[in-house]
Design a protein that fits this description.
The protein has helices at residues 46-53, 93-97, 99-103, 109-121, 137-150, 167-184, 195-201, 223-226, 230-233, 237-256; strands spanning 4-14, 19-30, 35-39, 61-66, 69-70, 78-81, 155-159, 187-191, 204-209, 214-220. With 257 residues, it is of the alpha/beta class. A six-stranded mixed sheet has the order 6-7-8-3-9-10, with helices on both faces. The chain has a four-stranded antiparallel sheet with strand order 2-1-4-5, covered by helices on one side. InterPro entries: AAA+_ATPase, ABC_transporter-like_ATP-bd, ABC_transporter-like_CS, ABC_transporter_ATP-bind, P-loop_NTPase.
């Protein structure tokens, strides 16, 4: 049985004047521990699909199962990391990273120690009493990742989490997120516009067409790239060939759109 199953998803956005088919016939099987990326033209429904998988939006048709059970929007088994860190500016970093545990009634002394230990693993020692304004953008995103991981979710949703960062910080954070998720055996779904990022971080890439969003192509990342950290993968000879292949496919989708 697959860890995550997306079955026959269709989604229509209704207004008073119109009905827009955003997603059509999406079927996916995802294994536990896989890192999956969604690529596609703007408006192809990547974020809508992510929201449906997370249970935040009910699809017009179809269903999503995690470990054989329907997803629940209130489940602590799903964590989100977004483009903005959404740390509360009036709370310390420690208060921010432990907020999910506190809301869920799981803030035990042991859980607090695990959260602070995660903070140290992310290279954020001695910042727990600091406020978000005192940290750089990259540090805040690392703190946001700790907040996400502190509740021990089984599935992580990554919605363009590096796009607001400068390029050097982005590359460093890609490596950190990739290695952390591998170490903890987490399953992750990434929405990105960055082909290189998708290749460097993923086990598989789903390329979506637009109007409506469908799975147009599936790319399986070669083993020689999957075993490398993202920065190293970008230097591998196979990387550029795959990049050019996906670029051409994406360009064709843009022309059709």
């Amino acid at each position: 049985m697959s860890f995550l199953t997306v079955q026959h998803i269709h989604h229509i956005y209704f207004t008073k004047e119109s009905a827009t088919l955003a997603l059509e016939n999406i079927d996916l099987e995802i294994k536990e521990g896989e890192f999956i990326s969604f690529l596609g033209p703007s408006g192809c429904g990547k974020t809508t699909l992510l929201s449906i998988i997370a249970g935040l939006i009910s699809p017009t048709k179809g269903k999503v199962l995690m470990e054989g059970k329907p997803v629940d929007r209130f489940s602590s088994s799903i964590g989100y990391m977004l483009q903005q860190d959404y740390l509360f500016p009036w709370k310390t970093i420690e208060e921010n990273i432990l907020l999910g545990l506190k809301i869920g009634g799981k803030l035990t002394p042991e859980a607090r120690m695990r959260g602070l230990s995660l903070l140290a693993e992310m290279g954020l020692e001695n910042v727990e009493k600091s406020y978000p304004r005192q940290l750089s953008g990259g540090m805040r995103q690392r703190a946001a990742l700790v907040r996400t991981l502190a509740t021990d979710p089984k599935l992580l949703m990554l919605d363009e989490p590096f796009s607001a960062l400068d390029y050097q910080t982005k590359l460093k954070l890609e490596d950190l997120v990739w290695s952390t998720l591998k170490d903890y055996g987490k399953t992750a779904l990434l929405v990105t516009h960055d082909i290189g990022e998708a290749i460097a971080m993923s086990d598989r890439i789903f390329l979506l067409s637009s109007k409506p969003g469908r799975v147009a192509k599936t790319f399986i990342i070669p083993e020689e790239l999957k075993k490398l950290e993202p920065f190293q993968a970008r230097q591998h000879p196979s990387f550029n060939d795959l990049f050019q292949h996906i670029w051409k496919e994406l360009d064709l989708l843009d022309e059709k759109g």
